[in-house]
Design the sequence.
């Protein structure tokens, strides 16, 4: 018997025939004057040339707690948009840009998979249209301005020991987490301890994705707190006087990027904060532009609903002033069996008992979405190893608990494999929901964090370290406690302990630091051992990557 090896995502993308981006723009009714081409198949949209109101309904795609087995959230997001297009809906998909950190590290690319991908896959997963480089440059320019201010006399009385602004790099590099700068004598600057975050954790990335205009971008950049004086007073970018220069570095990048799916659905890919260390959503500029051009916008938020979706609801939707019309929760039988205690190497073996245990994780994510007043649709992303008894088990669970569920096979079939899901989504978006935020901005910091831990994670309590308590007192002193909360937490567990899989209960979440991000407009609460500069794994994905003689990529995904 001859076994035919399925094509890889990169092979499928390479063999796909793209339409010129001008044709995609024309079909999306984007005026030619608004298109700035970056080659034949990519463009930026000048949002000032797009008229109309942002009225399209927003469909959010989230997932269960991620596992090494994979869930396929981006793939389902793209496949759902293609399926809605097949049902004659005027639809656009809005995604985040991939970071080189996971591309070169563990995850690989982030443009979907199989026949549910955005193209050109290779360029999007690498340097794309230069947005991340612009954000990195702006971030590091600010660092240079700070150190130059110290060197030139420090008229703002900045305490070098209390500078909280870090440099960034869009790669995983643990060796740069803590560094010393300014060494080598008086001509080299003022010696101080510094460090690097990954670009997607930069406050400028968050600002970039939450800004609603170039004016709003500049104002947010001006509000950034870079550190404190010797008198413990905050120092902002506005005091340094460089918000205009930073805005100049970002003005081209702020325009959303237009590409296409394999099935020629228009896609806006813009911004890319991680959801475990930042707010995990694509830019408001892209989402609102898509809402002017389409009737339905399908977007995603990073990791599980406890992270990306929670922040989408409490931060992005609050800031942008819209409510999700429907939420899709992506799950796989493979991943649920891992949550039920099965090792990755044993996932091909049928195990209904483990699946039943693992379904508790899915049940919790369904409850999370319902807590926000929205009824979710579960997308059961099919794998060839799924057995009929396993399928029957999860379908029966959904029936018993009045949970909408749709089997999807978009990796193999593209939009056709998402038609059942698309039909259910269309039913949901026609029904009113009771969407609401989980906390009021006037609640105390402790109240807001406790609400997230108890209502979203399912935990019992929150413990703040002495350092966090001092930071909270300082934040309250300056009146910053009215900002929403951005939890920095492991993505692998509903708790702050990555090994607690399934649906843990009764746990306490420890907040070790509370960092004000005034430009972004939220407070970051660091939990567990979460790092804002990840490290590479023992066998990084980069080891499988190469370039063929014709210049084409090898092993990118």
Sequence:
């Amino acid at each position: 018997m001859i076994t035919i090896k399925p094509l890889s995502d990169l092979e499928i993308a390479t063999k796909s025939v793209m339409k010129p981006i001008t044709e995609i723009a024309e079909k999306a009714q984007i005026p030619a004057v608004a298109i700035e081409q970056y080659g034949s198949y990519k463009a930026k949209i000048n949002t000032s040339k797009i008229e109309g109101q942002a009225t399209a309904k927003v469909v959010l795609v989230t997932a269960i707690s991620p596992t090494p087995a994979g869930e396929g959230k981006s793939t389902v997001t793209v496949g759902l948009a293609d399926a809605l297009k097949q049902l004659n809906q005027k639809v656009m998909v809005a995604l985040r840009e991939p970071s080189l950190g996971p591309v070169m590290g563990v995850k690989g690319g982030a443009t979907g998979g199989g026949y549910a991908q955005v193209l050109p896959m290779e360029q999007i997963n690498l340097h794309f249209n230069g947005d991340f480089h612009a954000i990195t440059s702006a971030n590091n320019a600010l660092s240079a301005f700070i150190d130059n201010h110290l060197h030139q006399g420090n008229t703002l009385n900045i305490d070098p020991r209390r500078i909280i602004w870090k440099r960034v790099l869009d790669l995983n590099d643990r060796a740069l987490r803590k560094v010393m700068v300014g060494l080598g004598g008086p001509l080299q600057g003022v010696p101080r301890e510094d460090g690097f975050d990954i670009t997607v954790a930069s406050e400028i990335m968050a600002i970039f994705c939450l800004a609603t205009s170039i004016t709003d971008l500049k104002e947010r950049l001006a509000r950034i707190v870079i550190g404190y004086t010797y008198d413990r007073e905050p120092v902002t970018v506005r005091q340094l006087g460089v918000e205009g220069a930073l805005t100049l570095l970002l003005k081209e990048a702020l325009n959303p990027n237009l590409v296409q799916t394999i099935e020629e659905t228009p896609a806006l890919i813009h911004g890319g904060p991680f959801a475990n260390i930042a707010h995990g959503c694509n830019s408001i500029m892209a989402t609102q532009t898509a809402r002017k051009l389409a009737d339905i916008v399908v977007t995603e938020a990073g990791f599980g609903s406890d992270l990306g979706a929670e922040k989408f609801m409490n931060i992005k939707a609050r800031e942008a002033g819209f409510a999700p019309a429907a939420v899709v929760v992506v799950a796989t039988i493979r991943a649920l069996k891992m949550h039920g205690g099965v090792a990755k190497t044993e996932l091909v073996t049928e195990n209904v008992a483990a699946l039943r245990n693992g379904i508790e994780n899915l049940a919790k994510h369904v409850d999370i979405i319902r807590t926000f007043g929205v009824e979710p649709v579960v997308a059961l992303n099919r794998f060839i190893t799924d057995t009929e008894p396993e399928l029957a088990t999860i379908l029966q669970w959904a029936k018993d608990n009045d949970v909408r569920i749709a089997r999807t096979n978009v990796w193999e079939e593209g939009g056709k494999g998402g038609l059942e899901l698309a039909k259910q989504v269309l039913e949901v978006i026609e029904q009113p929901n009771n969407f609401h935020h989980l906390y009021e901005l006037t609640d105390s910091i402790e109240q807001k964090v406790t609400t997230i831990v108890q209502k979203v994670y399912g935990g019992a309590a929150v413990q703040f370290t002495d350092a966090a308590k001092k930071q909270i007192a300082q934040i309250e002193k300056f009146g910053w406690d009215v900002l929403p909360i951005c939890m920095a937490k492991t993505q692998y567990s509903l708790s702050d302990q990555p090994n607690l899989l399934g649906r843990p209960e009764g746990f306490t979440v420890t907040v070790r630091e509370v960092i004000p991000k005034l430009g972004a407009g939220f407070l970051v609460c660091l939990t567990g051992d979460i790092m804002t500069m990840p490290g590479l794994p023992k066998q990084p994905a980069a080891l499988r990557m190469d370039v063929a003689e014709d210049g084409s990529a090898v092993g990118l995904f």
User: Anything to note?
Assistant: Residues 156 and 229 are 7 Å apart (CA to CA).
